[in-house]
């Protein structure tokens, strides 16, 4: 936005007779910048979706679940994954719709409204993904503890060593859950946080002009 700042300084130095033209120029720059940010959000969302699809396709989960012999749980996880992908596709469609609307907007108030709507959609998307990650981690820990035969000896040891050992084990699981959640939160903060700040800066600039 350095160009915008230079344009604003130039606008302030000019006579009032040129004020309206300069305001329109500022609006055009903000409009173009906002459209570019939302397009980038859409592209990142699509690539993120394809990345997780690729991880799912190339992972060896089928062999792992077949070894555990938990058909009901596997069915639940498959249904959950389909629902999750459907929700992600819905978010990507929402990103696309926001991009189209912002790209074709020719009103300051409408653009401000759509910027706020886009920020809200992205925030909901991020929190949904974090919630899903936490839920899947909890399910993964549960399956590993109760059904994985490789952990049977550790499970027996924990259950026979009393409440202190059990609490210690739970504490380790909670720490791992927090660590993984924090990593993904930082990932989303870095991935979308910069774009959200740019959009909010555009929103603040739009509040200062009156077309």
UniProtKB/TrEMBL annotation:
Protein name per Swiss-Prot or TrEMBL: Beta-carotene 15,15'-monooxygenase
Keywords: Membrane, Transmembrane, Transmembrane helix
Top-level taxon in the UniProt lineage: Bacteria
Stretches that traverse the bilayer: 37-59, 79-101, 122-147, 167-188
Entry keyword annotation includes Membrane: yes
